[in-house]
Amino acid sequence: MPRKKQVRSEQTKQDILNAAGRLFAAKGYDAVTMREVAKEAGCSHTAIYIYFGDKEALLHELSIPALTELQLQIEEKVSGKLEPEEALRRISLDFIRFCLIHRNMHHIFFEARSIRVDEAEPELEINRVRNGMFRLLMQAVQQCLNLPEGSGRLLSATRIYFYLLHGIVGTYQLSEESAEDLMDRLLLTFREAIEVLLLGFRAQHAPDK
Amino acid sequence: MPRKKQVRSEQTKQDILNAAGRLFAAKGYDAVTMREVAKEAGCSHTAIYIYFGDKEALLHELSIPALTELQLQIEEKVSGKLEPEEALRRISLDFIRFCLIHRNMHHIFFEARSIRVDEAEPELEINRVRNGMFRLLMQAVQQCLNLPEGSGRLLSATRIYFYLLHGIVGTYQLSEESAEDLMDRLLLTFREAIEVLLLGFRAQHAPDK
DNA sequence: CAGATAAAGTAACCATTGGTTATTTAAAAA
DNA sequence: TTTTTAAATAACCAATGGTTACTTTATCTG
After folding, report:
1. Model pLDDT for residues B100-147, shown as the tens digit of each residue
2. How far is the CA of B43 from the C1' of C11 (A)?
């Protein structure tokens, strides 16, 4: 079995991923060319095509570890010992922070385009992760509102909750401010937004009259 | 003064706008080439550059009449005789419907990029319209919540309201479904989302204890 | 009617980009 | 030593937005 070759190959792949990660984060996906990534990674651009097929696949592969980590964070809070509303609050902020940090991947998380129907394997890793995450969000909403699982009301409540999160991160997707600055400046607004939604849901399910 | 020349010139410009409108709506901004627009408009692609400068400027100019009409719709409801909450409800649905119909212009309304700082006139028509619209939204929120004008609470409430709208239209930005189908399928959810937010705001300003 | 004017077409061109395809080089494996 | 194989090199392709020089044609004006 080869060993040094394997290692070298793996190293090149990692170099590419690192370079792409840096560049995408710094300049945004669209503004980065494959030749640039190659230069930064210290390899030829053809090597990238050997390992990743095309540009979007590169971004794809790049996004999986980050997404998986987020999923873990959320999982902890869903199955943890927090009271449901507190869990939902924290999950929301985790999600927002994550999306602001990884703004360059925005379209991977939110645009249907990134679901590659032309793929050999229909169960693309990223879709598994994404679906898992949506299920987690729904679970968190369910525990908050005590709605029957699988009910239409739960689905629409989760949708509404998702709209808000989506709108928040979408609003700042192209902002020049760093994720940190945005969180500093707007954390209170984000909190308030979540709180208003929770209040609204509560009022909806326990009408005031 | 020339007359027939002027008319012809105007006609060409209109043909281009019409063609671009059709194509952008059908295939999306990115997927349409300038040569395509020219072909559809029955002119050469250089003519487009004469009239509009570049592709984005074409989309820009195309979006202004539509936006102005939306602004009118909203204005009516803000200054009309509806009770404030009903006005906000209708404005929200107007806004959502408009954004779903004009999905191809999504990035004009929501992406900072479309604010061209490199423009000779800093007061670009579209920015005037857009700012006017935001002021209207804030006014509608203000009349609902009775918050002092110019207060931080009003600003953050409007932001939250905007997040929700932004999230709703963003979620379906790339959907293949027609605006009509989406409205049919999701109108109740949209209404519920607005209702939840209103309930939440109300609960927030009149705490239940 | 004749010449000036301006709208628009034609066609060539440019740079950039994502992507592909030989062919070669060099190091590691057999 | 011979064979693999990772990877570089370099050339190429097609599409795209955008530009420019030159020409045609319809209209306006004297």
Report:
1. 988 877 776 776 444 444 444 444 677 778 788 889 999 999 999 999
2. 15
